Amino acid sequence: MFLKKITTAVAISIAATAAAQAAGHSSCGIDAGRVNIVGNEFPAIQTVGAGAVACANDNVEVKTNLTADHQKINVAGMTSNPAEYTSAIVANSSIVALMNEDVIRPLDDLVAEYGQDLKKNQLITVNGKVMAVAFMANAQHLVYRADVLEEAGVEVPTTYEEMLAGAKKIRDMGILENPLGGSYKAGWNLAQEFNNMYIGHGGEFFKPGSAEVDINNEKGVATLTMLKSLSEYMSPDFLTHDSNATNAEYRAGNVAMMNMWGSRAAGLVTEEGVPQEVVDGFAIAGPMTVAGGDTPATTLWWDGWTVAKNISDEDATATFKALTKAIEPAILDDAEVATQAVWLIDGYEPTEAAKGVFAAAAANSVPYPMVPYQGLLHSALGAELSDFMQGKESAEQALADVEAAYTAAAKEQGFLN
Amino acid sequence: MKHKTFFWFFLPTALAMLLFIAFPIISVVIQSLFTPHEAVLLTVENCGPFGCTTETSIDQEATAALKLAEPLGRFAGLSIYLDRGHLAVNEVAALWSGRESLGGFFDGLKNLPFYRAMYFTLTYTFVVTPLLIVLGFAIAVGVNSLHRHLKGLVIFFSLLPMIVTPLIGSLILFWMIDSRGVLGSAIQFLADDPDLSLKASTALTWITLMVYGVWHSAPFAFVVFYAGLQTLPQDTLESAMIDGASRWQQIRYVVIPHLMPLVTFVALIQLMDNFRVFEPIVGFNAEAHATSLSWIIFNDLGGETRLLSSAAATSVLTIIGVAILLSPVLVRTWRDFNAKT
To answer: What does pTM read for this prediction?
Structure first.
């Protein structure tokens, strides 16, 4: 009996694989080659990865390695010749590391030959050459609890000052002890919140036309002061909260307002076990401004795929075709896929969950800078700001530390003398 | 053993050590002395879904030519070791000449990544190592005096903390000490302070990490000491008993001297292990409060731009640190060895 079950299961899975391969063979139009994709792991990228894997057939091997640690392995995995990964799924921050190391190839010839269906605004060009194909947009924006705000008589904030006042009111009324949430985990997340707020204050990260950092100024201090004020309305553990932990706080009903990634908003309250009032009160709005500025305190992001430089033309073509197939407009027919992201794909109709990202783009938010040394500053911010957030040093000292840490790293990397 | 026999006997080990220990160390030393080439930058127009912007990019052709000419990069000498991310000689000198008090000087040192990491690493090493030896010894003596039917079960449970993968073990504890977790709530109740959070205060985070360190490593000391106890000379023990030695005196004058070489062994291994403390810092998300040299290496390699030279320099400093830390124990072992022969 047991053996019979196993035999049946094996037979079914073989049949399914064969069917998938047959389907893949017929629709992706790849004759031969090797495809191996490395990338982040959130739902929209899972969809793209699965779409590419469906192109596998007897002559074409398609593998994916989707992990939150993709940035730690993509450069190394694409440096060798031939490269292990034929494609890396990246964002506007992480493509810089690949371009710095010169491991991705221009896609102009492949776009001309096989990419007729791609929209022009999907093509990421650097110095006139297509270096990546974007498939989704992302931004951080306000996520709030409509029921809590209503109970407290707080308007939906459009500025961080209003958010602070609202948080104070909610706490004073005794509705929530720590009404604000935020991914302020020391490291990448905290640095990103600094970037958002600094851009909102109209700050420039570098002296014009150079790699010399310039953040220890009034705007930098104002940025840190605002981050500190906000953190006083957050869970005392905020320095350990990344976006997963912040979302968990929101789901648990402990948070009334937070600045959260659009890509995470759609799935925020669809998980099991979220209290009904959180599900009902879930609402999103555009990003907020700060200090009377016009530019929202957020950054715009795209996610897209690249093709490795150190691979054969056959593999490059196979990779390009498989990934183009994976982001074809037909994937949006699946209602769940359509809500997974703000797709840049032809025929995408914004869903309710996409409102925040669209508002961010409409309000002239700026994209995260694609500068070769931005990543070094991001790391320096992540490592040096936590002392200030704990009240152990002044804002000026923290910013001076960031500048010193960045300068040491930039000298090592040859961006500064 | 004849020299020839010894040579052939030792050859495979020597080759493996050369391949897996010596060569990587040489490679790391070389990498720490070189840095990437100066970047040739050019201004480009980048376009994407959000429009076009003028930004800086790296001139790949010019950089490729530089790389071809000198594949190792620029020779930097010891400059990476001396920069702010490592020994920070200039910063330390400035702190020293500008000091108002010795306390102020040390506070300034703690603001520099290397010294901040050393401060935690050394405190951790010198608190955790003795504690885990004492605890491991106590467990070993306790288990040894149990009834033989109970021993197997107790040994199994005492070993569990060591069997759990460090990262997983620390993650589990991380959630348990959350202010809404089992342990976190219990501590809040005991301290009668509903706002107490182990993760928000540096002192409490350090204590948590050290308690974790002892919890995780004590089983290792226990196993070694327990094995040692099985070789305890019963004659000596019995004559001590006949002489009227109390249980404490038996332990003090018979058991401990017998186990002393093992204490040296455990101390050696654990000093080395604790100096490389890493997993609990990641598992407990404690980088805002505590960093270590290993964590700095991880952080250098995990950023969007990898700092290979910096990570290599920190690795060499870690090796030097371990060597310094182990030197007293090694010297002692060497003396014992000479005394015996």
So the answer is: 0.87
